[in-house]
Amino acid sequence: MPIAQNPLSVEVTLPREDVALLKVEGYLDVDTATEFQHHLANQLHHGRRHFLLDLSEVPFMDSSGMNIILRVYQEARDLPGSVHIISPPSAVQRVLDLTGVSITVPVSQSVDEALSRVDAHPEGPRVPDA
Q1: Which positions ≥6 away from 58 have C-beta within 8 Å?
Q2: Which burial class, exposed, middle or buried, applies to 80 when counting CB atoms under 10 A from its CB (0-12, 13-18, 19+)?
Q3: Phi and psi dihedrals of 79, rounded to 5?
Q4: Could you read off the pLDDT of 56-72 as tens digits, one per residue?
Q5: What's the pTM?
């Protein structure tokens, strides 16, 4: 079995009972997205509603990574809960901006800022009435 060229590392901590902080290191792409998805699914399974995704050590992210972020955003919103991206490098921020993901999923510069956003809307983001 070949060893991944750019292995992914995901460290999960729990700042609060319903909040999972996932610190991601490495390339978030088609080769590593499934591993990232497993970590998120595990936290959903254990009742977490709010997800803080620290991407500060992710030098590259492709559409596979973005799709997983959007998928967990939709699942968390239905709980209701939230997803927050923390400190993406400029290359990742640019991809988030170009694709519109940063309009949907809030981007914070620190864990404390993201936790403040969770506290401001503990039931998740408001969805306008149709």
Answers
A1: 24, 25, 26, 27, 28, 65, 88, 89, 92
A2: middle
A3: -70, -45
A4: 999 999 999 999 999 99
A5: 0.88
